[in-house]
Hints:
Layout: H1 7-32, H2 39-63, H3 66-82, H4 85-102
Helix pairs in contact: 3-4
Amino acid sequence: MTIETSTAGVLALIGIMALVTLATRFGGVFVMSYVRISPRIESFINTMASSVLIAIVVPMAFAGDAGALAALSVTTVTMLVLRKPLPAIAAGIAAAGLVRYLT
C-alpha cells in the first residue's frame, strides 16, 4: 500500500498514526483495568520504563554525532546536579543546538 506525499496524503498518515496511538493508549488502560496491581507487576512496569529509556539513549551514545553526545552529556550532568528533569532536558536541547550551530 502506498500513499502519495501530497498534503492530503500526509494529513491522512498523521490521522492514521493518531488513531493507532489513541487505540494503543486506551487499549492499554482498558486491559490494565482488569489486572490487579501487585508489587511484582508494579516492579515490572517501573523496570519497563527504564528499559525503554535505555533503549533510546544507548544507541545515541554510541552512534550519535557531536550534537547528540553533547546533549546526552549536558542532560546527564544537569540531571545529577539539579535532580529536575525539565531543566536537564532544556539544557540538553540547548547544548545540541549550540553544537550543531557551531559546526
